[in-house]
Amino acid sequence: MTLGIEVKSLQLNYGSFRAIKDVSFTLAGGKIYGLLGRNGSGKTSLLSILASFREQTSGVVAIGGEAPFENAKIMEQVCFIQESGYMQDSTSVADVLRLSESCWPNWDREYAARLIQLYELPLKKRLSALSRGMKSALGVTVGLASRAPVTIFDEAYLGMDAPSRYAFYEELLQDYMETPRTFILSTHLIEEIGTLFEEVLILDQGHLIMHEETDALRSRGATITGPDEVVDRLTEGLTVLGEQQLGRTKSVTVFGELTKEQRKLALAEGIELGPVSLQDLFVHLTKRRGDGQ
Amino acid sequence: MTRKRRHPAHNVTHQLLFTYRWTFIVYWIVFIAIFIGIAVVLNHLAPSKEAMDSQSVWEGAANSPKVFLMVIGILLTPLSLASFVSSGVTRKHFIMGIGFFMMVMSAIFAFVMVAGYPIEQMIYDKNGWSLALNNPHIFTSSDQLIGIFFEYFFLFFAYFGSGWMIGSGFTRFQWQIGIIISVVALLPAMAMEVVLSSDWMGSLMQSVFEVERSPLAAVIVLAIIVMASIIGLNYLLIRRVAIKKKVV
Nearest CA of chain B to the CA of A255: how many Å? Predict the structure, then answer.
């Protein structure tokens, strides 16, 4: 079972501060979405509304065609995992799993047990006694084993070490292939997880500034690598996102599609053209004057 | 893969009973141990018949569970709401689940109080002491077990509910408004004592204002209305409350 999400003219105010400003998008069910944004861009606020953790100030949100807030049918289909979690610190790992099993209708006990083993989580330990990485691993376990048709991870894996994070990416992808559902992953670790995204949404200062398929987004720029003088000639007038040089070989990342002529020239000069990284694009799209970036 | 599950409200009740089981068990062990201790001391000192006349120790003991339940009530929303909502449970089902939980716990506590009176009567009879109740109640002697049960059930629920309102008030609002709500939240407990004409408020109503006790059927109906009001007020407080991010 997969559920689509529709958001129209969404606004969220915290007192006089507007955290989300007129955001609209549609997400088809059964895909992996990346939600990117700088700190304070409104990512967690947006995801909190989708998960019914808070109600929007105005606008419409529909999951599977229904408003999610206080809608029992929808709320039990949307699992929102944050790094800090929401369980009491005095609760044991076993109690968290027990509560999760009793609440999530599609809970997969065997899968949870396998993940607990994978992350070597101690069932009897209280949450207060767990390391940050173990807390993250528990969150990831609950999110994956919930098998909720809409599963959202909001930086839930930040505390995990690199091997655990890669194990999570692998598990997520494998689970997604076996039981397709809608995943939304909010992250700052774009280089690591970017390859999983089918579509990317970028929030900046409460506005949705980009929502595109990942491949289309990456084709909005290019990495041009070759002899420095040719590369300089080719990138003249283009928006340069970053450059690296080793000896006479230069690699420049540019924003904006290359024209047919530029591509022809690059080919003729033996220049290597590649897609731009999501992270470079993200930095370019969200940088502000005064950032020094 | 979909399993047969409990209703979400029933599940909340079940989970809360599981979570607080040891808290309640330990409380009653300590409570009963203290009273056994008092009984042993009394037996050892063997006070005169006059000294023990008209003093029900058990009757005064009811204050402790009332305050204990109020404290547990204060913890309910701040400690549990986020856990359940983040597990896909609606606030409405959480409130219903707490309502059932409070009923179950109030009934269990009331049963213990019911059991205590005949035991106390037996001890007093064995020692030749006379036993009289000091405060007004809906029961007039310690053998009216149904009356004892209902009075304590309603009182415990009301104190539990007042505590719940205090916790909900602090969850919903900033501390300044939370403090104001804490004062207002005592009203349901006081209202229940007025309705039942029992304990401190009952004494006040009968001795100062000379208010006559309503017929038992009316008392029960009014007590149920107070219980419903407690749940309704908590619903108003937390039906749309935001779940805030926990600091790591």
Answer: 36
Q: Are residues A107 and A244 in the same domain?
A: no
Average pLDDT for residues A204-210, to the nearest whole number? 94
Residue A265 sits in a domain of what CATH number? 3.30.70.2020
User: What pLDDT is attached to residue A7?
Assistant: 97
* Strand residue runs (E) in chain A: 5-14, 17-27, 32-37, 58-63, 78-82, 150-154, 182-186, 199-204, 207-213, 221-227, 239-246, 249-255, 272-275
Chain B nearest-CA residue for A56:
B242
At B15-45, the pLDDT tens digits run 999 999 999 999 999 998 988 887 778 777 7
Of A213, A235, A250, which marks where a domain is finished?
Answer: A213
- A44 in contact with chain B, both atoms CB, cutoff 8 A: yes
Q: How confident is the model at residue B248 (pLDDT cuts 50, 70, 90)?
A: very low
Q: Residue A293's pLDDT band (boundaries 50, 70, 90)?
A: very low
Chain A CB within 8 Å of residue B4 CB:
no
In a domain, B99, yes or no: yes
Position B30, amino acid? V
A201: which 2 tokens? 């949404």
Q: Is residue B123 part of a domain?
A: yes
Could you tell me the residue range of the domain that residue A228 belongs to?
221-275
- Give B-chain residues touching A54 at CB under 8 angstroms: 242-243
Chain B: residue whose CA lies nearest to A127: B248
Q: Which residue of A has its CA nearest to B239?
A: A70
pLDDT, tens digit (0-9, with 9 covering 90-100), for A35-45: 999 999 999 99
Determine the pLDDT at residue A214. 92
* Contact of A183 with A35, CB cutoff 8 Å: no
| Complex ipTM more than 0.95, yes or no | no
Nearest to A160 by CA among A149, A168, A171, A150: A168
